[in-house]
């Protein structure tokens, strides 16, 4: 395509509305434009990048034996009532009434619709397994959409759903999807990790998130520096502390700590480390109080706590000061486990702590030399805390690193949650009715483009991995008024087009400086310059956007060289 | 793909809900399933056919210099208020309020959104022309959705919009789109005609509908048997009747016609032909009465009448008997033009009629030998009637044929309707602000698949034109338990896949009869049978679904033959 004929409204200034770099660059490079809050138009270059991701997704899903279909975006409320989500799903589910008064919603996801389709059309184990996917615009009415394509209201997703007759079959399908996702994000040219994710309250199932690694990511990812282990914070298991032979237990001692309530203030006052103190937090779980004991420098992982209590995270929150006083009789800041009448859970780490400080359950007092079992007991001792970079890998014992990531994919073994709710069954090989065993597999397609930019950019603009770049080559005609340069540019342009290379010819009547700036901004992997050195030596310059390396070579050789470079960059993963 | 692994839920019975053949066959062949009224899931084969159409559309739009983008489906109400359509568009526009109370709608079309995008991002004539399109799921809340994919509420459309700096530019863009549409429907393998369409109240503009010809079509199309002329009924111009030298004018004679009100009854009673009678109809145009004179056997064309009156068809209707009596003092059935005080329009045909019968404006009486100009005058004499197969081509004078069609595409020169309403302007080469001159170009993508089936089917099922068939070849392994036959089937299947042929291998453990039935139902262009004659003579049979012709040849030659057949069928149009 010729730049002069394309709609690429680049901007010189960074729009003030854009907080994150992908949002800024997508706007500046003319890839997207906002229509309304969280809703964007994809302009030709933005759409081209999205289509690249879609194509890779499609090829790898098909290779893994999945079939593409397309389900409606407008869904009947009745199906959501059957699954129980009409009430449970928050206001992100955009509900409306059609002209005939029927309750409907805009699909944020399609478990209900696909389960309904399968229960009506598939009846025997002989027709299984089935793995179906679609690539579609979804809508979630986010309360605070932001970050451009990272958290929009309208976005493009690949969502897939599998139906198996047995647990083993469902597990095999899950593994196939895990592999397909690896291939997809590898082929997109992204640095990513598949991390173990929490499965919430659905028992016996498993889940992985695929995270594009980027400093600007919203999520923290735990990665082992030695083995393949990776998990998100909700899931990352803290190793149980090794048993140690206890030191002599000292006598419990009450000490006045006037006005010292926070861990930092108490430990400074007592001249001890936060590792020598146990803090007592109170949570309200389904409106009932529960105490949580934790080493002073550790933090509660809410999802782990919710799982330990068997409640939904939506029904779990820190108690307010008044609630703490009402249930324990102690003001917040001086609470301790001795004599507590509400349920008490302790983090595993307490198992190797001795002679630690705790609250004295009395205003302005703490206790020194407290010991579990001797001075108090707990109902449960388990993994309740956020993992830290001081922890060791739960798989191999190696060192852990905490890094930032952007979730672009999620695979989930659903089990029979939806098939049971919607009574979707098949006849097994004994003629007995069984619920389908399901999995679901999502990829944020438009989000992947944003994540690729978060991971790959510099101060001048985006740096697209070639497989998902909207164009592979940008060819700059630096003197459109010079006949020889223009002829050479056109000749190379035609040659590249014929070789199947996706090339933009910048034929605009603009200064070279502005063409360089736009080429950098758009992040096209290879920039070819036809200018002065062509006039002087018959040479053109190829520049690699990512490395900045340049290569000067005769016009006649440039086409073949670019074909080879593009070909190498598209080589499929091992 | 293997049939056994695909979701193709074929049905033996025709579902009672389906009235038209495309709807029946799409359901029976497992191409679509209804989710709710007018909303369908596209199963793998249905989606595959749609994707074929999409691909042809995309290739031809790109070839014509259009650029693909993707606009949001959820649109802000404010933009529609700016264009005036928030109020004017009926309840087909699905309106809703989001969680923040903002009025929004589901996009049935995108004139507002694209005009807004362009006014914000394009400012100079140097950036024009621009031609942008998208392929997208649209929603129109039809009151009575029916006929499956023919008139759904949710459907897939290609909609394109062009922006030009001059009328000549806009006309050239229009012609390019006309050509692109010709190529698109030719490449789809469909019999179609581009017909002139009415442009309604937007003056100075033009419009063509692309009609797939099918006996079951909802629309009537007028086609010249000699030249290229084709038009829809609204647009088809009736030639002005040739001037004739008038016969002697006879004396006006009143005659009793007791109880004779309808044309048929009056002419039978008077023993004259309907061609010798002028009927007087009363319409309410924006609630004001107006009389229309027409030869007895002719019918009013409402759009022509609305255009002659300068009103919208929505504001034009036949008057009720009471309204006729109230405004003329004459009971319905005996009305005539003499002495009428309301405006009177006459169809051109009256120009050559003499000594005709009319109503006497008195119950139970008519007049014989009435004559225009002598006995009464009219305000306007123009083309107001439905064309008939007795009319002649307005371009070449050849014979006309009335045939049925299904509208699958529509191109329209919009002019400045939307750019003026939304104040979308650019600076011309004199530095003056000008509204963009727009065109819009739609293709019903999912509807094209339905239209293809309406045009191409027989009692056994669909007959897909190869370019839009979900698969090109269906390979029947007639004895999955026979090792030699299965090996030969697999070998040919692999060979075809490697040659890029889209092939389904029917590997199911089913009787041959049921495989034949399904192959016919699915309408795959070439059916290959590996069965008894392979065992006996090493031969397979290739059958052409459309012609029924069969060809027996050795297994080793079948692959190359199929490649050649598919290649020929995909040859691009001249």
TrEMBL record, chains A, B:
It catalyses: tRNA(Pro) + L-proline + ATP = L-prolyl-tRNA(Pro) + AMP + diphosphate. Residues 33-465 form the Aminoacyl-transfer RNA synthetases class-II family profile domain. The keyword Translocase does not apply. The lineage of its organism: Bacteria, Pseudomonadati, Thermodesulfobacteriota, Desulfobulbia, Desulfobulbales. HAMAP family: Pro_tRNA_synth_type1 (MF_01569). Keywords: Aminoacyl-tRNA synthetase, ATP-binding, Cytoplasm, Ligase, Nucleotide-binding, Protein biosynthesis. Belongs to the class-II aminoacyl-tRNA synthetase family. ProS type 1 subfamily. CDD domains: ProRS-INS, ProRS_anticodon_short, ProRS_core_prok. PROSITE patterns: AA_TRNA_LIGASE_II. It holds the Pfam family tRNA-synt_2b. This is Proline--tRNA ligase. Consists of three domains: the N-terminal catalytic domain, the editing domain and the C-terminal anticodon-binding domain. GO terms for molecular function: aminoacyl-tRNA deacylase activity; ATP binding; proline-tRNA ligase activity. Catalyzes the attachment of proline to tRNA(Pro) in a two-step reaction: proline is first activated by ATP to form Pro-AMP and then transferred to the acceptor end of tRNA(Pro). As ProRS can inadvertently accommodate and process non-cognate amino acids such as alanine and cysteine, to avoid such errors it has two additional distinct editing activities against alanine. One activity is designated as 'pretransfer' editing and involves the tRNA(Pro)-independent hydrolysis of activated Ala-AMP. Coiled coil: none annotated. It is found in: Cytoplasm. GO terms for biological process: prolyl-tRNA aminoacylation. Its EC number is 6.1.1.15.
């Amino acid at each position: 395509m010729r730049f002069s004929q394309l709609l690429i409204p680049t901007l010189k200034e960074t729009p003030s509305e854009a907080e994150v770099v992908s949002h800024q660059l997508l706007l500046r490079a003319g890839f997207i434009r906002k229509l309304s809050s969280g809703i964007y138009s994809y302009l030709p270059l933005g759409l081209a990048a999205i289509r690249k991701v879609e194509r890779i997704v499609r090829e790898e899903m098909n290779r893994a034996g999945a079939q593409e279909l397309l389900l409606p975006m407008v869904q009947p409320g009745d199906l959501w009532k059957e699954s129980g989500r009409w009430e449970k799903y928050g206001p992100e589910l955009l509900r409306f009434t059609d002209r005939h008064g029927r309750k409907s919603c805009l699909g944020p996801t399609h478990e209900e619709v696909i389960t309904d389709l399968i229960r009506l059309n598939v009846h025997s184990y002989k027709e299984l397994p089935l793995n179906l996917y679609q690539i579609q615009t979804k809508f979630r009415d986010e309360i605070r959409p932001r970050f451009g394509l990272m958290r929009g209201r309208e976005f493009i997703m690949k969502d897939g759903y599998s139906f198996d007759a047995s647990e083993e079959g469902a597990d095999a399908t899950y593994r196939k999807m895990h592999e397909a996702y690896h291939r997809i994000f590898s082929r997109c040219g992204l640095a990513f990790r598949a991390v173990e994710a929490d499965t919430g309250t659905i028992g016996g199932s498993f889940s992985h998130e695929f995270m594009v690694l980027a400093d600007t990511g919203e999520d923290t990812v735990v990665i082992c520096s030695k083995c393949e282990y990776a998990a998100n914070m909700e899931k990352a298991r803290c190793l149980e502390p090794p048993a140690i032979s206890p030191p002599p237990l000292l006598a419990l001692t009450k000490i006045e700590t006037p006005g010292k309530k926070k861990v930092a203030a108490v430990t400074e006052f007592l001249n001890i480390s936060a590792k020598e103190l146990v803090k007592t937090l109170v949570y309200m779980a389904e409106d009932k109080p529960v105490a949580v004991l934790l080493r002073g420098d550790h933090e509660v992982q809410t999802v782990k706590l919710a799982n330990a209590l068997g409640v939904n995270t939506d029904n779990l929150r820190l108690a307010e000061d008044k609630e703490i006083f009402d249930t324990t009789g102690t003001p917040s800041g001086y609470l301790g486990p001795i004599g507590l009448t509400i349920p008490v859970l302790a983090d595993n780490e307490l198992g190797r702590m001795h002679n630690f400080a705790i609250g004295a359950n009395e205003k302005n007092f703490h206790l020194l030399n407290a010991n579990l079992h001797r001075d108090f007991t707990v109902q449960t001792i388990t993994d309740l805390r956020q993992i830290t970079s001081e922890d060791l890998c739960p798989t191999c014992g190696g060192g852990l690193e905490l890094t930032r990531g952007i979730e672009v994919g999620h695979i989930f073994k659903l089990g029979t949650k939806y098939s049971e709710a919607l009574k979707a069954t098949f006849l097994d090989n004994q003629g007995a009715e069984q619920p389908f065993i399901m999995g679901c597999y999502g990829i944020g397609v438009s989000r992947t483009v944003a994540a690729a930019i978060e991971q790959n950019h510099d101060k001048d603009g985006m740096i697209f991995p070639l497989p998902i770049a909207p164009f592979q080559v940008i060819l700059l005609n630096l003197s459109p008024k010079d006949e020889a340069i223009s002829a050479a540019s056109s000749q190379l342009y035609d040659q590249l087009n014929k070789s199947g290379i996706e090339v933009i010819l910048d034929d605009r009547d603009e200064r070279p400086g502005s063409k360089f700036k736009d080429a950098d901004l758009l992040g096209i992997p290879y920039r070819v310059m036809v200018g002065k050195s062509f006039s002087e030596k018959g040479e053109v310059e190829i520049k690699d956007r990512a490395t900045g390396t340049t290569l000067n070579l005769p016009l006649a050789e440039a086409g073949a060289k670019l074909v080879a470079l593009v070909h190498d960059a598209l080589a499929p993963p091992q």
